[in-house]
Design goal:
21 helices, mainly alpha, 69% helix
């Protein structure tokens, strides 16, 4: 089917409209509509995975003819007089760097929908917003037109703001506004760069300015005297215009990742957000940031990226260690996992900064691995909170005797997250560190001490995960709520197993058979490295 990506993107939107139209008497069926939608999406992405071509002829990256499942329709055409014609296309396509994120998005949305069973108020609005967010996330990973990409990118902001602000915890308004302002700050300046790129690039086929992201990756398509031309050496505020544009775009995406010092919205948003939203925030929103750095920052401004590589590597190392140290100091289990996300996403930045095949492959695998593991961790925290409405680590002791199946899933998630061999995070972080370590010999971008600094983060993650496991789950059972809590701490239900088992299987499968992902992305990664190196 030539329009399979459009079906994947807009199926949740159709389901959301159906939920809005249905009367409130059907409120108990809204969750089943949302669940059926995510299952259908996962089956579609599974079909895409099985039929995906992983040879160099289909590498994509900066060659439009090599993208798969291409959809290109003239969307907006407007005569602007002497400036030319406004040219915006509905342009979709995937390559080896975007396809894995489609499967991850479908799986995480499925888990988030199962977690939404605990939502009891205003179900129509909740599931409509959740499905709208689903559409926006899928759209970001498929868009090849920068204007369309920006629409989907911004569309994620609105449902997340309301999902946190309406169904969150006691400080939900503060967390929602903080998240909104942080993201909007980066997006406003991103729009300015998009407009500058539009007026700098010509479509050789039509002679008009274009938002086509693939054409923006070719220096030959830039006007000789344009602000972002590789030959004009234009500057703004005494800084190279291309370097300044790279920095602005990087900050916009780095806020989503998030990296230090743009991370402060994340712990508040996670702690106050309901469980389904925390799952999506950690599982998908953070990955949109990492994907944007690869697809936009590095692909359009590779010269500025190479120039900034040392600083990006340093940011990655600082994020790894800072996030881990903060996680070690937390008393709230959900906040601990939020800070651990900052640490683990630091490996993504470090791997990308290395500019090596191993580093970029490790960064992509880390995003997929962390997407599944963070969704699993936040789902488990949500299970505990839904039963006793408490997340303080010191208030629990000896949970293994009360909830043995729950403890087994926690142990899988903890050991996988700390990088135990046999799990996905080990392969991802190992490749990121190998890329950082060999970078000095391959391209001279990063010194070896950055790889050593990153490895310290693995030791710290083992410390905070094992310490938490020892405090909460082992020893004699002691609960702050006493017998009342004991009666409410039921073990894992069938619905919860349906959510947790696929995530555990993903962590094991990618740890034992990383080629399940590497084989699909390798051609694209090689083409990406060739492009930025050239």
């Amino acid at each position: 089917m030539n329009n399979i990506l459009s079906i994947l993107i807009f199926l949740p939107l159709i389901a959301a409209l159906a939920i809005i139209i249905l009367p409130s008497g059907f409120r108990e069926r809204f969750k089943y509509i949302a669940l059926a939608t995510t299952i259908a999406q996962f089956l579609i992405t599974l079909s895409i995975y099985l039929n995906f071509h992983s040879t160099a002829a289909f590498a994509g990256v900066n060659k439009e003819s090599q993208f798969q499942l291409l959809e290109k329709i003239s969307w907006i055409r407007l005569d602007l007089g002497s400036i030319g014609k406004l040219e915006i296309d509905y342009h979709l396509g995937i390559d080896g760097m975007s396809m894995p994120f489609l499967m991850l998005s479908a799986l995480v949305m499925f888990v988030a929908t199962l977690a939404s069973w605990e939502i009891k108020t205003n179900l129509k609005a909740f599931f409509a917003l959740l499905l709208l967010l689903n559409t926006a996330v899928m759209g970001v990973f498929c868009s090849l037109d920068f204007f369309l990409f920006y629409i989907f990118y911004e569309l994620m902001l609105l449902p997340l703001y309301f999902l946190i602000g309406m169904w969150g915890g006691a400080r939900r308004e503060y967390a929602a506004i903080k998240f909104f302002l942080y993201t909007l700050f980066g997006s406003v300046f991103m729009l300015l760069i998009i407009i500058g790129l539009y007026f700098s690039v010509l479509n050789p086929a039509t002679g008009n300015h274009t938002f086509n992201m693939i054409l923006m990756m070719d220096p030959g398509n830039y006007l000789g005297n344009s602000i972002f031309s590789t030959t004009a050496n234009q500057s703004l505020l005494g800084i190279s215009a291309r370097l300044l544009a790279f920095i602005v775009l990087f900050i916009a995406f780095a806020i989503k990742v998030p990296i230090v010092p743009f991370h402060t919205w994340l712990p508040d948003a996670h702690v106050e957000a309901p469980t389904p939203v925390s799952i999506i925030l950690a599982g998908l929103l953070l990955k949109v940031g990492g994907y944007g750095i690869l697809r936009v920052c590095y692909s359009i401004f590779p010269d500025a990226a190479m120039q900034s590589a040392w600083w990006l590597g340093l940011i990655g190392v600082v994020s790894i260690i800072y996030g881990a140290l903060n996680a070690l100091a937390q008393t709230d289990l959900k906040r601990l996992i939020a800070y651990s996300s900052i640490s683990h996403m630091g490996f993504v930045i470090l791997g990308i900064a290395s500019g090596t095949t191993e580093g970029v492959s490790g960064a992509l695998l880390q995003m997929i691995s962390h997407g599944g593991l963070s969704a699993m961790l936040f789902f488990l925290v949500g299970m505990l909170y839904n039963r006793v409405h408490d997340r303080e680590i010191a208030h629990f002791r000896g949970l293994a005797l009360v909830m043995p199946q729950f403890t087994a899933f926690v142990m899988i998630a903890f050991f996988a997250s700390l990088g135990l061999p046999g799990f996905s995070a080990f392969m991802a972080e190992a490749f990121s560190l190998i890329g950082a370590f060999t970078s000095q010999e391959v391209n001279g971008l990063l010194p070896r001490w950055m790889a050593i600094g990153g490895s310290v983060g693995i030791l710290l993650s083992a410390a905070y995960f094992l310490w938490t496991l020892q405090r909460m789950f082992f020893g004699m059972t002691r609960l702050k709520g006493g017998n009342e809590w004991l009666s409410r701490l039921n073990d894992v239900s069938i619905r919860e197993k349906l959510a947790l088992v696929p995530l555990a299987v993903l962590a094991l499968a990618l740890g034992i058979f990383p080629s399940l992902i590497f084989s699909k992305m390798n051609a694209s990664v090689l083409a990406f490295i060739e492009m930025i190196s050239g």
